[in-house]
Amino acid sequence: MQKYSLNVVNRSQSNKGTLKRLRSGGGIPGNIYSKGNARAITVSAVAFRNLNKKIGGGASLVELEDEKGEIALTNIQSVQINSVSRVIEHIDFREVARGESFVAKIPVHLDGSSDCIGVKHEGGVIDHKTLELEIRCLPSKLPESILVDVSEMKVGEAIHVDDLNAIDGVEFLNNGVQVIVSCQPPTVNVSSEEKLDSISPDIESESSDEEVASESKSGEESEDKSN
Fold first, then answer.
1. Which of 75, 112, 120, 156 could form a disulfide with 151 if both were Cys (CB 3.0 to 4.6 A apart)?
2. What is the DSSP string of 185-227?
3. Domain holding 15: CATH number?
């Protein structure tokens, strides 16, 4: 389990104008949720960006320390990003009680994609369907990610939640039959030349039949004239 720290500043609930000025000044509004309570905070955009680089896309615990020196152990619950500007607009943190299990979402990473039997020898395509899993565990047991080995997977095969290796202290909460990743059959596109080749014998046959009929008719007309 990786644990990081981040400084925050408490704030009162704000209106849209205040939040806009806060973001313009380099801050990100956020909330800390804990057992029926919510506390509004501000996080430095630069500090959070640096934190994200350290975390590297994995799951982690973050100790938030406010201006009073109070510390809350948290897990990042959600990050709202503007779809146009790609700027982070809001962050939700969930406070985690030490020694108590909690629910978190963990990213799923694939291992051995380039060596996958279905891809290398059967022309298949890897279809990564589940990008993250929901788990329950103690803070000390939180894994950064779930690594799934796909090197032995063949075309038509799939790996489900129930197929994952057990992790000490971690409970998978997703449905056991949910597909994590599968190897799909290759898609064959018939080229225009192949299509022409496939129909050319019929065209030639029809053309030959027309020529024979034409010659036969010409022969009959010649015989009529001679008679």
1. 112
2. PPPPPPPHHHHHHHHHHHHHHHHHHHHHHHHHHHHHHHHHHH-
3. 2.40.240.10
User: How crowded is residue 96: how many other Cβ atoms within 10 Å of its Cβ?
Assistant: 20
Tell me the whole-structure pTM to 2 decimals: 0.73
**What tens digit of pLDDT does each residue of 181-193 get?**
999 998 765 444 5
Helix (H, G, I), strand (E, B) or coil at 165: coil
Q: 142: which residues sit within 8 A by CB, 6+ positions away? A: 1, 59, 60, 61, 75, 104, 106
Q: What is the per-residue pLDDT across 87-129, written as a single tens digit (0 to 9) for each? A: 999 999 999 998 999 999 999 999 999 999 999 999 999 999 9
Dihedral sign, Cα of residue 63, residue 65, residue 66, residue 69: positive
Q: SS3 of 123, please?
A: coil
Clarify whether residues 91 and 113 are in a common domain.
no
Angle made by CA atoms 50, 51, 57, in degrees to the nearest 5: 110
Q: Which domain, by its residues, includes 54?
A: 3-96
The domain tally of the chain equals 2
If asked whether residues 50 and 90 sit together in one domain, one would say: yes
- pLDDT per position as a tens digit, 42-82: 999 999 999 999 988 889 999 999 999 999 999 999 999 99
